[in-house]
């Protein structure tokens, strides 16, 4: 039966209600009977208008107290309360048609408070307030209370449930439907008990401002404490306790603990590298996405990285052939919110990257003689411990980060590479072309096909040089230092002439200077045609000269022969002999190492040498010898009657054209010795040696 609903009481005395038309029929003969029943009928019919307001159940514990807020309304508003009885665990007696049970409190209008225990107090009035206080209350009072009210118009039994426990009541913590991280919430610790004069306190296990209040209304009797705080994810899963505290005894009477359920995104998300060793370029890398707390649970993961990868399972990522420049990687664990982990660096070990040669000084063009400094740089290397090496045109130079030239020369120009190595590998830079600018140098005139050229052919003179920047102007000069007004690198002579023989030199000019070459001589030879013409002229001239010489010699010899004959005839002894050797043509002795290989036909008429022998007497007759010379009879061996006659002839050498000199004069030396010429006596003056020179 609900609180405030009418209770069944004295049912046997209550008349049966009849329909309205039946009542009208009884107004006649039964009028006296109806008038007698009017008071009881009105009481019953108005009993439905009793109204009560009080808590449905009151809670307390042994030794505490109970405060029962109560309001009532009688059927007749002007009706006053005549009698009030408070039963404990009452029962209705069907025999006596009345209620029975322990009476805790009784108040009558005529008798007053005859049966009022000290622990029960009626705090109401006779019109509407029926508030009652029980202090102390005992465990035996547990059950229900019956509040019996009587007025002139009727009576009513109101039931009030009373829950008295042996131990103090436990507070009840009320939480909001959802607690989210960082969103302010209010927690309530509710105790279904409140009794003025009985001091209690509610305490929280969390620090924070708490407000305690009590409620003593006909709806509820309670004490509550409200705690306002901003939950953090660390509160999730933590115990929250509300304690019932007795300030007099300074002890905890009871408490309740709940587990906080704080909704939050995944916390302490981390990206973990699974590889046991240091990662090298090209390795396979396994990553895990871990977290410490999540409410609700994580449902998916997200990754932020570049390159090729695949998620082997939720929260497990595999990177195939990791790049050397792999960027930082991060992951996110997500429920209804996503939380990103701090980025991690794979620290991929790799050989030096982006190795390059840098010109430190000078910053612009390099001129011969300048001081030059080159540096070897790189962008990345893991590990950072590296070594530097240099090469020029593929040939190793030195070790070191920098390469310096105190005074650079053109020979230092070339392609320079530096290479850097670490414990992982080695990387070489691209070749850097080092250009050295210098004025023209090492100029010379090269003649093609050679320094000696035959006339009529083609001769090319090239001004060879070494210069950077390239030569933009050449100037040619001849042996007379005359400007030929030719400004190309090559000077072509086509056809070349004898007049072109001589020394040539060139001058080269670039942006840095002007240099002259040493002279080179060009020799032009006659062609076979020219030589033939000149030889023909020379041979003709020589033949004419030879003929003239030949006829001159012939005439001279004839003249000498005539003179010799005249001289012999005039001699006193008359014994003079001239022997002419028969002409014999002899080939030149080329085998003789002393022979100069010259041959002169004029010498065929010369007398080389002869022997003259004389008889004993005038009667001796001469005879012709085997050699074709005149010969007398042999003298005695004891006597030397011979004449020795010799001719020494000097050979002549011609010019390179083999032409005889203009003067064919015979330079032969002739001498003779005459011994015992004749048998007669000679004058003393005739015994001297005579030197005779014969010229043909």
Automatic annotation (TrEMBL):
<dbReference type="GO" id="GO:0030246">
    <property type="term" value="F:carbohydrate binding"/>
</dbReference>
<dbReference type="Pfam" id="PF08205">
    <property type="entry name" value="C2-set_2"/>
</dbReference>
<dbReference type="InterPro" id="IPR003599">
    <property type="entry name" value="Ig_sub"/>
</dbReference>
<dbReference type="Pfam" id="PF13895">
    <property type="entry name" value="Ig_2"/>
</dbReference>
<dbReference type="InterPro" id="IPR003598">
    <property type="entry name" value="Ig_sub2"/>
</dbReference>
<keyword id="KW-1003">Cell membrane</keyword>
<dbReference type="GO" id="GO:0042609">
    <property type="term" value="F:CD4 receptor binding"/>
</dbReference>
<dbReference type="GO" id="GO:0055037">
    <property type="term" value="C:recycling endosome"/>
</dbReference>
<protein>
    <recommendedName>
        <fullName>B-cell receptor CD22</fullName>
    </recommendedName>
</protein>
<dbReference type="InterPro" id="IPR007110">
    <property type="entry name" value="Ig-like_dom"/>
</dbReference>
<keyword id="KW-0732">Signal</keyword>
<dbReference type="Pfam" id="PF24518">
    <property type="entry name" value="Ig_CD22"/>
</dbReference>
<feature type="domain" description="Ig-like">
    <location>
        <begin position="171"/>
        <end position="254"/>
    </location>
</feature>
<dbReference type="GO" id="GO:0070062">
    <property type="term" value="C:extracellular exosome"/>
</dbReference>
<keyword id="KW-0677">Repeat</keyword>
<dbReference type="GO" id="GO:0030888">
    <property type="term" value="P:regulation of B cell proliferation"/>
</dbReference>
<dbReference type="InterPro" id="IPR013783">
    <property type="entry name" value="Ig-like_fold"/>
</dbReference>
<feature type="region of interest" description="Disordered">
    <location>
        <begin position="620"/>
        <end position="641"/>
    </location>
</feature>
<dbReference type="GO" id="GO:0009897">
    <property type="term" value="C:external side of plasma membrane"/>
</dbReference>
<dbReference type="GO" id="GO:0042113">
    <property type="term" value="P:B cell activation"/>
</dbReference>
<dbReference type="InterPro" id="IPR013162">
    <property type="entry name" value="CD80_C2-set"/>
</dbReference>
<dbReference type="InterPro" id="IPR056386">
    <property type="entry name" value="Ig_CD22"/>
</dbReference>
<dbReference type="GO" id="GO:0007155">
    <property type="term" value="P:cell adhesion"/>
</dbReference>
<keyword id="KW-0675">Receptor</keyword>
<keyword id="KW-0325">Glycoprotein</keyword>
<dbReference type="GO" id="GO:0019903">
    <property type="term" value="F:protein phosphatase binding"/>
</dbReference>
<feature type="domain" description="Ig-like">
    <location>
        <begin position="352"/>
        <end position="429"/>
    </location>
</feature>
<keyword id="KW-1015">Disulfide bond</keyword>
<keyword id="KW-0472">Membrane</keyword>
<dbReference type="Pfam" id="PF13927">
    <property type="entry name" value="Ig_3"/>
</dbReference>
<dbReference type="InterPro" id="IPR036179">
    <property type="entry name" value="Ig-like_dom_sf"/>
</dbReference>
<feature type="domain" description="Ig-like">
    <location>
        <begin position="440"/>
        <end position="523"/>
    </location>
</feature>
<feature type="compositionally biased region" description="Basic and acidic residues">
    <location>
        <begin position="631"/>
        <end position="641"/>
    </location>
</feature>
<comment type="similarity">
    <text>Belongs to the immunoglobulin superfamily. SIGLEC (sialic acid binding Ig-like lectin) family.</text>
</comment>
<dbReference type="GO" id="GO:0033691">
    <property type="term" value="F:sialic acid binding"/>
</dbReference>
<keyword id="KW-0130">Cell adhesion</keyword>
<dbReference type="GO" id="GO:0005769">
    <property type="term" value="C:early endosome"/>
</dbReference>
<keyword id="KW-0393">Immunoglobulin domain</keyword>
<keyword id="KW-0430">Lectin</keyword>
<dbReference type="GO" id="GO:0050859">
    <property type="term" value="P:negative regulation of B cell receptor signaling pathway"/>
</dbReference>
<feature type="domain" description="Ig-like">
    <location>
        <begin position="266"/>
        <end position="349"/>
    </location>
</feature>
<keyword id="KW-0812">Transmembrane</keyword>
